[in-house]
């Protein structure tokens, strides 16, 4: 089995280890003026040009700067979204901080193949969801280079495919916006060490450059779950007034072990334990991005982006051998020789399967956009073309679990090549938008995007390759309006439609008669319909007094021909299928109060996510006598109805800031118990967490900080699913024992402390 850990260099360790001797606490000085851009305009398309002030955007858009992310004390970008952004919740399904499942208004964004994706992610105008399963690789995001972020709500068609619940739009720093040097080093619980740096420069004649990097290493808060990653970001550009361009390059690599869900009986003994080992993922990725903007005239502008990106993923994990599982069940209450005599030919020793998967993706594309102002109108016309390729291979090997539940491939057993995919996808789209100023108080937005996509897969091995080809097209419209009822109150409303084309993975795993193993086995399969989502949103923003900001929105989002993964047994085997109509509706409220030495933020989100059709959600516990059936009104799993967030920062002294945040999450439905007919599975219990932080800026350039996450060391879970338990209490079942159903949960991390030091110089 491959080694599961990459060793950091000594220079990194020396720098990170020095932090505790210098640090007392974190955060930015709340009075210090920083040369950072404030996100006060919203790009209505992935490219600049059709920009509007945030107050005039017809939706409850959420924004943040890099200073906001730093101030929060979050572990990473996903943790910041979970702590700070209304409507966002996360599930720690894998047990690694860079492999979280994120949901926004009930639509998911996940690194796990098989999760139904519903959010798109853009970095500097480039959509970075991976081609095979639309998954999100959080570990490849250059976090130190993030300048600002916006979470665009709804199924906005201008943000293209997979924008069902919204689009996460990230902008990066440059030498123009962030001149100077930033260095941040920290060390903490679970063996965590992190070093980040960034440096920007401006030169004569409009030239500018920026470089940033991140190194992270941890032993992991759960048993045998180390991880490390590193990335590098480079940008060079020139601003010549009417014309500006930049060329950026991002490289990232990671080696993460997230050992997944834990059975309830073992969790009760040790919540840091793992069920089986190892579930390991190696990622490598790079992105080359060229951006250009040119003013043709005072009223006309051209913007363009061209990119090439590629990535490699190598995953391995151990799984329960289905033949062994069936043999154990057949031996229940049986004294047959093959059940009691290890030397009998029918006795099955190999209780595990070692899975190994390798994927390679690449994509090349370009987007161009023309914007024009004419009286009360501001038009945008654009086009996008992209081509991606995917290579995927899956291998497996007979194995056994040792006494520590580690998968050990059997000596002499070959790693067999089980399946292979060679896929390509072409997409072309045209989009148009018109922003109309109806009066000084009212603005109307009309837009549409036509998408045309084609997926071609060659699937085979050990059988001969078999080709399948699918084409999809759709015209998606949107309309929105904002109206100022006064200087302190703005109302907005919008209706939008977006689509998600089935990914190559879903199209290659859609036959109930031939379930595949995720993220592995694929075959030529039936046609899947594309998901069509329509969203209605109504809300308002208010500033009732100085230093007080309030916003809120009601939303309803309906997915037609939604796609779900149906599990077919105790292993990861299953298939994708259209399940009809689903609905997500609710409301969000948020407020910020800045008074004197205090800065308060609070938000509440209510989500009602339900099926609106009838069917059966196949799973390891679904039987003919007790199917996991759903009907209109059945709640969807793993989506909490109530989420409350409260954050506060207090300047205790001129250079000392103390703060914290409180997260309260309501209960949610356990996956596999949507029907409510398995009371043993129950639900995912609600929980509350308190995180504390403090900082001391002991001179103009240096800050020390401390962060304590889960201060009260609460035990909690973020996800629960039902399955059969092969290791009750951590001990493997024996032939004749009853392999009963059990709760498997995603335990949340316990208390952790981080101390660090930050340097800023302009």
Keywords:
762 residues, mainly beta, Maltoporin, Chain A, five-stranded mixed beta sheet, 7% helix, disordered N terminus
What does this structure look like?
With 762 residues, the protein is mostly beta strands. It has a 22-stranded antiparallel barrel. A five-stranded mixed sheet has the order 3-9-10-7-8. It has a three-stranded antiparallel sheet with strand order 4-5-6, covered by helices on one side. The two termini are 48 Å apart. It is globular, with a radius of gyration of 26 Å.
Number of helices, counting only DSSP H or I runs of 4 residues or more: 8
Q: Which architecture per CATH?
A: Beta Barrel
Task: Work out the radius of gyration.
Answer: 26 Å
What integer is the average pLDDT? 89
The proportion of residues in beta strands is over 45%
Please write the CATH class name: Mainly Beta
Number of strands: 43
Sequence stretches where pLDDT stays below 50 over 5 or more residues? 1-38, 519-526
| Helical/strand content category | mainly beta
Biggest beta-sheet profile: 22 strands, antiparallel, barrel
Structural domain tally = 1
Distance between the termini: 48 Å
Gross morphology is globular
Oligomer: single chain
* CATH fold-level name: Maltoporin, Chain A
Q: What's the helical proportion of residues?
A: under 10%
CATH homologous superfamily assignment:
TonB-dependent receptor, beta-barrel domain
């Amino acid at each position: 089995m491959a080694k599961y850990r990459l060793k950091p260099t000594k220079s990194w360790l020396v720098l990170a280890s020095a932090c505790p001797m210098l640090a007392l606490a974190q955060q930015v000085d709340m009075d210090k003026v920083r040369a950072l851009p404030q996100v006060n305009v919203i790009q209505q398309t992935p490219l600049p040009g059709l920009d509007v002030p945030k107050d005039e955007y017809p939706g409850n858009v959420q924004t943040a700067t890099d200073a906001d992310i730093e101030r929060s004390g979050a572990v990473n970008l996903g943790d910041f979204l979970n702590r700070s952004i209304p409507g966002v919740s996360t599930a720690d399904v894998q047990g690694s901080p860079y492999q979280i499942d994120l949901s926004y208004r009930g639509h998911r964004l996940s690194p796990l193949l098989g999760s139904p994706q519903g959010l798109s992610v853009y970095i500097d105008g480039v959509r970075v969801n991976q081609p095979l399963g639309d998954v999100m690789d959080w570990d490849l995001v250059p976090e130190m280079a993030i300048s600002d972020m916006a979470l665009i709500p709804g199924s906005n068609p201008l943000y293209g495919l997979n924008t069902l619940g919204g689009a996460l739009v990230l902008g990066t720093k440059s030498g123009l916006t962030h001149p100077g040097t930033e260095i941040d080093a920290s060390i903490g619980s679970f063996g965590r060490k992190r070093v980040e740096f960034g440096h920007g420069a401006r030169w004569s004649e409009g030239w500018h450059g920026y470089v940033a990097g991140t190194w992270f290493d941890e032993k992991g808060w759960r048993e045998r779950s180390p991880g490390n990653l590193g990335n590098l970001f480079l940008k060079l550009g020139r601003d010549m007034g009417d014309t500006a361009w930049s060329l950026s390059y991002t490289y990232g690599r990671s080696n993460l072990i997230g050992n997944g869900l834990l059975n309830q009986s073992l969790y009760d003994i040790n919540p840091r334990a793992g069920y089986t080992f190892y579930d390991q993922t190696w990622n490598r990725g790079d992105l080359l991005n060229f951006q250009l903007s040119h003013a043709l005239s005072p009223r006309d502008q051209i913007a363009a982006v061209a990119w090439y990106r590629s990535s490699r993923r190598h995953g391995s994990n151990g799984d329960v051998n289905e033949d062994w599982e069936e043999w154990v069940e057949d031996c229940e209450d049986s004294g047959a020789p093959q059940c009691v005599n290890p030397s009998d030919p029918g006795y099955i020793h190999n209780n595990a399967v070692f899975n190994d998967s390798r994927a390679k993706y690449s994509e090349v594309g370009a987007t161009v956009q023309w914007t024009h102002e004419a009286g009360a109108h501001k038009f945008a016309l654009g086009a996008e073309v992209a081509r991606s390729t995917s290579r995927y291979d899956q291998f497996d090997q007979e194995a056994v679990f040792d006494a520590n539940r580690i998968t050990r491939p059997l000596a002499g057993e070959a790693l067999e090549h089980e399946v292979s995919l060679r896929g390509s996808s072409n997409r072309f789209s045209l989009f148009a938008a018109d922003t109309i100023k109806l009066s000084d108080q009212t603005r109307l937005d009309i837009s549409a995007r036509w998408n045309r996509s084609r997926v071609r897969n060659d699937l085979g091995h050990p059988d001969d390759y078999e080709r399948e080809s699918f084409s999809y097209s759709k015209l998606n419209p949107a309309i929105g309006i904002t109206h100022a009822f006064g200087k302190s109150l703005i109302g907005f409303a919008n209706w939008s439609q977006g689509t998600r084309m089935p990914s190559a993975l879903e199209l290659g795993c859609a036959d109930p008669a031939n379930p595949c193993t995720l993220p592995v086995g694929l075959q030529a399969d039936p046609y899947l319909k594309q998901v069509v989502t329509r969203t209605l949103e109504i809300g308002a923003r208010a500033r009732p007094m100085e230093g007080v900001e309030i916003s809120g929105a009601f939303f309803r989002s309906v997915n037609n021909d939604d796609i779900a993964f149906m599990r077919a047994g105790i292993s990861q085997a299953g298939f994708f299928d259209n399940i009809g109509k689903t609905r997500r509706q609710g409301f969000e409220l948020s407020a910020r109060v800045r008074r004197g030495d205090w800065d308060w933020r609070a938000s509440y989100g209510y989500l009602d996510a339900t099926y609106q059709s009838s069917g059966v959600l196949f799973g390891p516990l679904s039987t003919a006598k007790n199917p996991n059936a759903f009907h209109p009104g059945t709640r969807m799993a793993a989506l909490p109805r109530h989420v409350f967030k409260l954050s506060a920062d207090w300047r205790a002294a001129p250079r000392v800031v103390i703060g914290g945040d409180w997260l309260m999450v309501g209960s949610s439905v356990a996956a596999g118990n949507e029907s409510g007919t398995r009371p043993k599975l129950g639900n995912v219990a609600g929980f509350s967490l308190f995180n504390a932080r403090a900082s001391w800026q002991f001179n103009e350039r240096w800050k020390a900080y401390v962060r304590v996450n889960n201060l009260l060391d609460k035990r909690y879970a973020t996800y629960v699913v039902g399955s059969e338990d092969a290791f009750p209490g951590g001990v493997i079942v024996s032939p004749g024992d009853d392999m009963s159903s059990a709760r498997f949960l995603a335990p949340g991390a316990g208390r952790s402390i981080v101390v660090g030091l930050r340097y800023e110089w302009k």
